[in-house]
User: Fold these one by one.
Assistant:
Number 1:
Amino acid sequence: MSTPGLKIDPLLQAVVAPLMPEEYQQLRDNIQRDGLLEPITIWAEQSGTILDGHNRYAICQELGIGFRTKALSFLGIEAAKLWILEHQVGRRNLTDDQRAIIWNDIREQRAAVSRAAAVVKARDAKANPAPVDDTSSPTKPRTIAAVVAESKIPERTLRKAQKLKKTNPDLYERVRSGTVTLREASKPKKNDLKFTEKDYYARIGRGLAAAFSGTDARLKELISIKKSEWTPEADEGIRCLLLNLKEVTKKANGYATRLKAVLKKNAATPSDRRRYEDCECEDGNECAMCLDYEKRTTIWEPELP
């Protein structure tokens, strides 16, 4: 056996579920004792690029142990990724949650392979208008129902995996690594729940509206002050109050700017994002967009008297 220098493609390596530390150590001990019994699989069209055996290759390089390789052919990287996923889901000691994650990836990767094949077919048809027999192998089913039947994983579990990948990719990868269960990852935190309660926002709104409730009457008295009532103390006091109001306005505008950025960042659709970008509220004057929303919202709390 030889020790050829192989290539590692980060995109292909990322497809593989990482080994837990104890699994890696067990693999290392086995290779050190028995040598590498299984060849490392490489991509024939990408000379020396590893498809399966990244950990084994690293251990062999570390220990100076020779190994064999086996080359497989694929039309493109999407097909290579699909082979890696389908290969690993049936050979590793994976938990049910890890298998659900990988099967969800398989479902998505089959769709990616189909799209890539369609692009190649369209390009070939354009270059050669003459009809040709399509002898390519059909893509395996990629619907949820088909994957459920093939994987024997409950549909509910697969849908949980699908949702988690969209909403929290970081947790999705932690489930893949085996450090978190799918149930733990899918369980909303207390902080997440409060953001779904309308009253949470209403309480903040009432608090903001009440900020002036204790001083409102006295501010109105100052606005109505007559020249005959004017004193040096009134001059200095109102100047100080203007500074106070300026600080309050600055803080309010700062929160308003940051909250608008939150709306824009989490906008569900491009049209929503454009709508938030069109907001033109300045110096406490509401723009037409915000005034319209004020009329329609069910959370809005009117200003306290």
Note: Residues 110 and 140 are 7 Å apart (CA to CA).
Number 2:
Amino acid sequence: MTSRVTEAVKLYTPRQVGMAAFLGTPLGGAVLIALNYVRLGNRKGARMAIVLGFAATAALIGLALWLPIPKSFPHAVIPMLAAWAIWGITEWLQGAALAARRAEGATTPSTWAAAATGLLCGVLIAGIVVVSALSGWLAGPAERYYDRAVELQSRGDVDRAISYYDSAIARKGTFVEAYYNRALAYEAKGLVDREIADDDSALAHDPTLVLAYINRGIAYRKKGLIDRAIADYDSAIARQPDLAMAYYNRAIALGAKGLIEREIADYGLAIAHRPGYPDAYYNRGHVYAEEGQWDRAIADYDTLIAHNSKDAGAYYNRGLAHEQQGDTARAIADFKTVLSIARLAPGSLSDLAQRAEQQLRALNAVSPFP
């Protein structure tokens, strides 16, 4: 005769546990395993089942989020494998005890109860995932592809970086950073139209992205669309008035339109916002030289040399300015300095050194460059 206690026990079968795992992640199956343990009088086993159920579910979600799984992969395979594994684990852990209790008169709960338990666990886990993703606690697949693209781009593997940006954008169409960085990748490949299209997309989703205005402006300038370039630099300056590179690039565009006074003024603003800005000094010095303002050109080259005494280009340009002023001694000294610097970096400055040598010959002050 069976006892009343044994008659009241209801134990889930391994098949029902596997079904709950399929419907509600490993946690769904773990809950039924835990209920079985409680009814078998093993509360420690029940607690361990719940802990392991959460851990297995977290691991499964992590793999799904972080691994770049192809879109063509049949996603139902993953919960099916999890269900099969949980079914087997249940047989291994509880199979003998379940068979013994059923022989003593224990019954099996409704399959609907097992399914409902699995579904409730699935809803719980889905809610946790959604809240976590919205809170930024978990990086979804788009971020995974983006991080990989950035890594590849930093190593110079531009083509593969673009493919990963493609995947990130396919999964998150509003991914501003992915559009912006893919634009930079297209710039590196010389694909100006694609670069502009991606900057357009980035700015459509975030009109405050100042650097996208700068980069698109540079791309427009490459295409000869100077007015559009200036408009983009204006937009960048309106949003960040202290951005030196915006003034610098606008100066170049203004120079392309022959607006020399405004060009010089913008180089001045670039330097004001970034003291020691070498490219701005170079360009302004060149403009001054073209305008015959030799003293101002020399002053800009002086500043460059003060910041970098090995700047061969600055010495060469200053030598030309001194020559134009009729200051032959200083011109010769600057050209000879170019040769001295070039000897310390053979190859990289050979062209500049040859030009300096030509100037010295013209001034009857030959200093052979090896």
Note: Residues 176 and 204 are 9 Å apart (CA to CA).
Number 3:
Amino acid sequence: MGHLSRIRIAGLAVLTASATGLMYSPGIAQESDLLATNAALDEAFRSGNTEAVDGLLDPEFSWVFKDGSYTFRSDVVRLLPAPGTSNGEEQEIHERIYGKVGVVQVFSGTTRGLRVWANRSDGWKLVHINELDVGPEYASRRGAYRDSLPNEQIPDCVNPCTTIPYQPSTPGSQAAMESWQGQEIAAATMNMSYEDGWAYYAAEENVGQFNGRPAGNPKQVRLENTFRRIEEGIAKSAQSTVLQMRLIDLDDAVLMIMVGQPLDGKPFYVSRVLVNRDGRYQMAASYHTDIQDSPSFRLVME
């Protein structure tokens, strides 16, 4: 079971959760080791401490910026870019621990940041950052064209439902990809069941984060919206095509970094954390960041 804590920096409200339930207390909670390390990383970026940043980044590290640009560890250490969530505004920080994997989400103004950490032999190391902006100027048109099509004109799901241009390198990443593929098959056929549908593969705590959507897309909201579409007579959903994928097996979870192309709109990066729960990998976090400098495309199925 994941452990959750939420700390409002420069505020008073603190919410923590564990297997024993919820507890509310005023004031700033004592930081966990992970949150302390996360704060140390922010301070290292702020102060331009190359050595400290270098020591906290995992060899697998990569970063999706809120404009959809993408970079790897060596460039980050050389350039020391400022995190988008270090914008001078109050931060709301959410933490979940899944074994040796830590998921930290930082909300600051209209910027949302996902940070995926791995507890290595020498401490917490940052494996990935995905940042996006929920302000209206970043809003995506993704889904509008799809929703305008009758069922017979919505393309069948081939990629990613039956084929994906990626070969997993570990049994864990293979199992995670198969679980996610099951999730996509269920979404394409509008199967929201908890027994074998989309709800089976999505963790209760998952809130999908998207450009231009301040409230995100919590699991229950996604279910309600899909049931509404079903009542309107919609029987199919067009899933985004996988253009590129990378899976990083962190034992207790698998990190997916993917470039996708919707039926209509800009290509985007999506970062997902797929948590191992007795062999079933559930999506516990997902961040979708449009590549702003890309033109929009409309797929033509042949």
Note: The first strand starts at residue 3 and ends at 8.
Number 4:
Amino acid sequence: MSFFESITKKSRLKTAIKQTAEARSSEGSKADQLFKKVYQDYAEIVANEPVIAEALYNWGFTLLHQARTKPRDEAAKLYQDAIAKFSFCLPIEPAYLGAAIDGGVAYMELARVNAVEPNDSLYGRAQNYFEKANAIQAGSASYNLACIYGLRSDKEACLNALEISKGKGSLPVPADILADPDMGGVIYQDWFVAFMDSLNQETEPVAEIKEVVVEVAVPTEKTEVVEEAMVAAEPEAVVDAPVTEKTEVIEDDSVENAVVVEPEVVADASVAEKAEVDAAVNDSAVVEHKALVDEDAPVSEKIEVAVEVSGAVAQWKM
């Protein structure tokens, strides 16, 4: 609240106090009109003060809980004090839901302590508070109203309030409803049993079946084929093997030498020199062919590699 608002409210408060003195000295209808005007002024002065409203509510809430721990006479006084705090809270903050609900609860518990009949005015005041709470938030106090109707054996009103509470999500759990002393007079009636059965059916857990999919990975076998061939004076050596589009050929230095080395042909070379050349080729031309073969792949082509050495032809077919 700003400084200006504080001064304005202070001035209005002084005016209301003077009008109160005038009302007290007046009689009849004039006095009633003055009192009514004064009450409205007081309500407007304290309105829109959330801190005051919150303090009053929590004060009443504390008194309500302390009353539950005390003997009958002392508890009744504490309940009345709590009700006063809630009743002052609502004019300041008319939409204070907690004050509306707990004000009705305090009246119900006071009625229970005093052992009055369900049609007593204390239950009527509790009903007014609960209806105010429902006006603030629909269904927030419908179960409390159902308790009052249950005490009065009003079947239709009780069931209707229970259904509203259920629909708004403010209904207690079934175990708490059955243990509520205010429902003691109706828990064995057919309509109430049917309502509770409907709650139990809705709250039964449903087993959820989940399909489990197991993926089995089938490893692809890679076969390493090692072929060793000796380049000699044989007509043709052929090895067939399936080859994929990607073929890894590893040739050691000796193979590379075998492919690249071509002995010079000398017209006048003697037979002995030719024999030496053939022996050198035979010693160095050991071929080790390694390829990764995909067994499932089709044979796409055959690759022919030919090396001509001293008139002899060595071929690899892959």
Note: Confidence is low (pLDDT under 50) at residues 206-214, 216-272, 283-295, 297-318.
